[in-house]
Specification:
The complex is a heterodimer of chains A (about 290) and B (about 400).
Chain A: H1 2-33, H2 40-56, H3 61-84, H4 92-113, E1 130-132, E2 135-137, H5 139-161, H6 163-173, H7 175-180, H8 185-211, H9 218-232, H10 237-258, H11 263-277
Antiparallel strand pairs in A: 1-2
Chain B: H1 3-29, E1 32-38, H2 45-64, E2 73-79, H3 84-96, E3 102-104, H4 109-122, E4 126-128, E5 143-145, H5 150-163, E6 168-174, H6 177-190, E7 196-203, H7 211-218, E8 225-228, H8 234-244, E9 251-253, H9 260-266, H10 268-271, E10 275-279, H11 292-308, H12 314-333, H13 338-346, E11 351-352, E12 357-358, E13 373-379, E14 382-385
Parallel strand pairs in B: 1-2, 1-3, 3-4, 4-5, 6-7, 6-8, 8-9
Antiparallel strand pairs in B: 10-13, 11-12, 13-14
Helix pairs in contact in B: 2-12, 3-4, 5-6, 8-9, 12-13
Classes of the chains: A mainly alpha (about 290), B alpha/beta (about 400).
Family (chain B): Belongs to the leucine-binding protein family.
Keywords (chain B): Amino-acid transport, Signal, Transport
Organism (chain B): Falsiroseomonas bella
Chain lengths: ~290, ~400
């Protein structure tokens, strides 16, 4: 029984770490602009697909991964420059609808530039499972979990310890006030698009050896990442990580112990229950009505 | 009466004669119009695209060889993009505007079921290329199909499980249409096949980790074999997780993953020893020389690969079978009247196609038996035919 639970735990944490990375991307852009960027899943797709095709073209894996992140960042910046920036001043809902359009557009382009097939990537450090107290764990799971921890720590240091990071936080706290003290909020928004694209692409690279990838892999991940961000509290990086891991664990334990047919339903019922009692999510800021 | 007026009358008479004569001429030289509504683009394009290419390739070949009963075939293809609504619109257009004598097509079960009433009402034979058993069970008078069904895949797998002396099976199925349909069929035929289903797990079509479900199966008492009805990347991940957890029981995949791409996605190490029922086309070169299908398969494979430069797929083969069954029937009926053509298709006996040897009847509008599926095992990254 213990081994079984450990297996569910590892499975849930690995899947949850992916959701957490996607949720972190949502959080960054949301903080800078109140926009939920539904093209976040496409950054994950780009990370995986560009790496797969670069490796197939003969590039070494680290180079291919770096290239994939560069491509995703470029796409993220272009998305900001060509779609979000021209519509600045529009309401958040309008901007969200623009990101949905961008997501469909990116999927269509990927379908043409790459193809419609599924692709795999060899695991970074072998695919022989590690046996731990009766549970079989893929080495790649550690890469995913380690990657998520590093990204979270890096983000924490960036936001708390650097001037640029403080500018991002200031923009998140109050855009008008930040602009008044000299923060270039438009630059901060571009930066957060670039950063979330990089995080998304990294997630895509790390998970492809486990989950496989294709041009439309982003849709489901964006949905799950969004749910995780809502659960944790939109706008809170810690909430994104906790929400992601929690969602992954809920799914895996529901599939393993209750019913695999209703595992998604179980996870979403729990999310609904949390949001009914805590509408801001677990770590969300309480919104203050200004008079 | 002037010369001009005489000429005019003469011309009129000639014209009238020509109008009377035209239908007779048409009977002899006008093309035989065959319709096809295929999902050439959209989510089912991996099915519809080879079907489209196959139909065009073989219609050209037949016409180059003099046509059917001295008349060329005119193929009219519409692309429904996988949308059942559009399929039905195109079906109506084929019947009312294009006046086709028969229809080969209907890439998915959904589009086929949407189009069936149109052809049934018009009494025009309709040979579908989709898998669902509901297309021909119960039988509709004018509707046929060429691919084998998921029920047959279940029966084939279960007979192999029994041949290994096993009987207690766990199912792990995708929640997509293909997985759910095959899961239902497997549950239905299990008892008759002497199989007990002891576990029934499911996963979402886009799930990335099936270890919880497989752990549950591993911990279920008395499981002797695992069957994975599914399609797309799900079965590849199931196969990987199966190896990860070190489960030693025989694993069966469905005909839905019978392609080299599956082995690549699942990795050859994880896929080693996996068995699945597949159309004979997958192992054409491995068939014994006396196998009736061998020559047909190799001919089709060579022709398709030379013409399109793509690897052959069983789906294009279904279109080949449909077209050839129809052409043979037109020859035998020596007519393009809907009901006489239908009777001729029904009378198809011993037709050797890519999907198997077809023996139709008034109660069987598919005409395949279990020998149409070959059991293959993955060894060293290759599909290997194993004794039937």
């Amino acid at each position: 029984m213990g081994a079984e639970l450990l297996q569910f735990l590892v499975s849930g944490l690995t899947v949850g770490a992916v959701y957490a990375l996607v949720a972190l991307g949502f959080t960054l852009i949301y903080n800078a602009s109140d926009v939920v960027n539904f093209a976040q899943g496409e950054f994950v797709m780009l990370g995986g697909m560009v790496t797969v095709f670069a490796v197939a073209a003969g590039l070494a894996l680290p180079l291919a991964a770096a290239l994939a992140i560069l491509v995703a960042v470029a796409v993220g910046l272009l998305l900001h420059r060509l779609a979000i920036e021209p519509a600045r001043g529009a309401s958040a809902v309008t901007l969200i609808i623009i990101t949905i359009g961008a997501s469909i557009f990116l999927r269509g382009v990927a379908q043409i530039v790459f193809d419609k097939q599924f692709h795999q990537l060899p695991a970074f450090s072998g695919s022989d499972p590690i046996l731990l107290a009766g549970a079989a764990i893929l080495p790649q799971s550690f890469w995913v979990l380690g990657g998520a921890v590093l990204v979270f720590l890096g983000l924490f240091v960036f936001l708390e310890k650097t001037l640029l990071g403080k500018a991002v936080l200031a923009t998140a706290a109050n855009r008008l006030a930040a602009r008044l003290v000299g923060v270039d909020t438009s630059f901060v928004l571009a930066l957060s698009f670039g950063l979330s694209a990089a995080i998304g692409a990294l997630a895509g690279i790390l998970i492809t050896p486990i989950t496989l990838t294709s041009f439309d892999v982003g849709t489901m991940l964006a949905l799950k990442g969004f749910a995780a961000a809502m659960l944790g509290g939109m706008g809170s990086p810690l909430g994104a990580v906790v929400g992601g891991l929690l969602l992954g664990l809920l799914e895996s334990f529901a599939a393993g112990t209750i019913s695999s047919a209703y595992k998604d339903a179980v996870a979403f019922v729990v999310i609904l229950a949390v949001l009914f009692t805590m509408p801001q999510g677990l770590f969300g800021r309480r919104s203050v009505e200004r008079v | 009466m002037g010369i001009a007026s005489m000429l005019r009358r003469g011309a009129l008479a000639l014209g009238a004669a020509a109008i009377v004569a035209l239908p007779a001429l048409a009977q002899r030289n006008d093309p035989i119009r065959i319709g096809a509504v295929l999902s050439v683009t959209g989510p089912a394009s991996f099915l519809g695209d080879p079907e489209d290419k196959t139909l065009r390739l073989y219609v050209n070949r037949i016409n180059a060889a003099g046509g059917v009963n001295g008349r060329p075939i005119q193929l009219i293809v519409y692309d429904d993009g996988g949308d059942a609504n559009r399929a039905r619109t195109f079906a109506t257009r084929l019947v009312e505007d294009d006046r086709v004598v028969a229809m080969v097509g209907g890439t998915t079960t959904g589009t086929t079921m949407a189009m069936r009433p149109v052809f049934e009402d018009a009494r025009i034979p309709f040979i579908s290329l989709a898998g669902g058993i509901e297309i021909i069970d119960p039988v509709s008078p004018y509707t046929f199909k060429t691919p084998h069904t998921d029920r047959m895949a279940c029966e084939k797998i279960f007979s192999d499980v029994r041949a290994r002396g096993l009987s207690r099976v766990a199912l792990i199925s995708g929640t997509d249409g293909f997985g759910q349909s095959m899961r239902t069929q497997c549950q239905r035929v299990a008892q008759a096949a002497g199989i007990t289903i002891v576990a029934d797990e499911q996963y979402g079509p886009r799930d990335s980790d099936m270890t919880p479900q497989l752990t549950r199966i591993r911990n279920t008492q008395g499981v002797e074999a695992v069957v994975n009805p599914g399609f797309g990347q799900g079965p590849a991940i199931v196969t990987r997780n199966y190896a990860q957890l070190g489960i030693r029981l025989p694993l069966y995949q469905s005909h839905g993953v019978a392609s080299a791409q599956f082995i690549q996605l699942a990795t050859p190490q994880a896929a080693e020893g996996v068995r699945l029922p597949a159309a004979a086309l997958l192992v054409a070169e491995q068939l014994p020389a006396n196998d009736p299908q061998r020559q047909v398969l190799i001919d089709y494979k060579t022709a398709f690969e030379r013409e399109t430069g793509q690897p052959v797929s069983t789906f294009g083969g279904h279109a080949y079978d449909g077209l050839m069954i129809l052409v043979e029937a037109i020859k035998r009926a020596n007519s393009t009247d809907g009901t006489r053509l239908r009777d001729a298709i029904r009378a198809t006996r011993g037709f050797v196609g890519t999907g198997g040897v077809v023996n139709m009847s008034a109660t069987d509008h598919m005409g395949l038996d279990l020998s149409a599926f070959r059991m293959v095992e993955i060894r060293n990254g290759q599909f290997v035919l194993i004794g039937n």
